[in-house]
Predict the structure of DYW domain-containing protein.
Amino acid sequence: MLRFLAIDGIKQMQHLPSKLKLFRSLRASLSLPPPHPKPTIKKRAAEQNCLSLLQLCNSLPKLLQLQSHIFKLGLQSNPLVLTKFISISSDLNAISHASSFIFSPYVKAHFFDTFLFNTIIRSYAVTSDFKHNALCLYGKMLRYGIWPNKFTYPFVLKACAGIGELKLGQTVHGSVVKLGFDDDSHVLNTMVHMYCCCDGGVEYGRKLFDEMPNWDSVGWSAMIGGYVRWGLSSEAVGLFREMQVAEVAPDEFTMVCLLSACIDLGALELGKWLEAYIERENVPKSVVLWNALIDMFAKCGDVDKALSLFRSMSQRNIVSWTSVIDGMAMHGRGTEAVSLFEEMKKDGVVPDDVSFIGLLTACSHSALVEQGKGYFYSMTKEFGISPKIEHYGCMVDLLCRAGLVQEALDFVQRMPIKPNPVIWRTLITACRAHGELKLGEKITKELIKHEPMHDSNYVLLSNIYAKMFSWEKKTMIREVMAKKGMRKVPGSTMIELYNEIYEFVSGDQSHSEYKIIYQMVDDIGKEIGRAGYVASTSEVLLDIDEEDKEGAVNRHSEKLAIAFALMKTPTGTPIRIVKNLRVCEDCHSATKFISKTYKREILVRDRNRFHCFIDGVCSCKDFW
């Protein structure tokens, strides 16, 4: 399989743009560079002096002085000195300057060696914006006739991973096989990581992983991390179980990836098990792992546990504070989020733009309008942070949730940067919720002109027409969507029960017990109907009679999941579910009645926040 992928990668090479054909110079035989001249005692002393000075270099001005010193000593072609110069330049974020010096006409390239090229390739591979330079230098290395070694390819593959070009990665894979480094575990692990970073590469990564002669924790972590990166969280958890069977001890990175999978799945019980495993197996708990645990508990519904972990940390960074502030925001505990933000400032931690997003979201979800405005303007005045589109979006959301639609519109029109479609959709939703239907219709039509293939814009307009009882226009929207091949994104809800994840979609009949579940949904409808529940059908897309509409909303995914939980769990057990979309008006109302009628605490995480339903009341106070 390894060789099949490699050969396929080499065949793909001819289709790449010319700037990516970096590997043509890889020939059956590569000439070795000429041997280095034997240094004299004087030269050796000068070399050691220069290396010592480079080791002490800690600023760009000193680096420039040392560059002149290298010339004065005649060491501009000494590979050992040049390699150290590159390494120090990388530490000082001056790799581009080092590269221009190394490859200047004053430096004799025929003295270069593999170690020097590995160092400069690595330096570019770890940058954010210049990873392509690492590949260009790899091509130059081959053109100079310098042999790569097993330490070259992890850096080259890391650069490929950062660029995310699958065909380019396959080409490098071909070179690895041709030079015989396809049995080195470090190279193979990095190659798995590379494939998992490329769109469409996860399957290649898994095939490569399965064919590896030996597995270590790095390889397992790379594959698990790849699954999590592309939203394949169930596969990540399944692979972790295989890892346990193989008796390979997971490392910190594995745990961080699995905690991210728990967040995606809403799997609180699995997250608790992972926390216990970390303690039991004495997995080192760095700040990164602490932060991942806090984030998992907050986003899986146990924000008090997240806060407890935060309080027990001996060292915290800005991510620690932001994670717990975000958690409070998602749970509608805005006052506590504000208190934590003020505590963070007193602790000497300077907030960044990300922490302000969490803070403004907290204000939005808790109707703290004036405080939210104050914090928004303090970003620039107090901390010198220029608001980004996300911060403006938070402010629009804050005003819209408070019913201040006109003020929100004025705010958008005064924004110094162009509003994005998310901001306009926030305004449209508020127009529908607060009766500004004509304004909502006008904005939505403009949005459709700019995004004619975005299905949610049509659904928003359809919902506005439903509120206006304009059934003819609503039907027309349905027909337009059908002609364009659009469908409303189906709602799906996940629930974790007894170490298994179950997923339901609207109208789902795939479950083996779906008939019993549907009967339970009908029974629930009768029970809560007697308690005063009336179905809200205005968000049903189709123009059908009212009885059929009630049937349609009765098959929403969250109702199926709640019915399944009521069937399978003891009386009084809390129910936790995760919805992929914003919870609809009808399901929100129905869940309040279910929590009271069946005496259950029901925690719903939707696309925006948590809703905690207890005894007929939601924690969002209908402000969602």
Notes: The radius of gyration is 30 Å. The longest helix spans residues 514-530. The first strand starts at residue 492 and ends at 497.
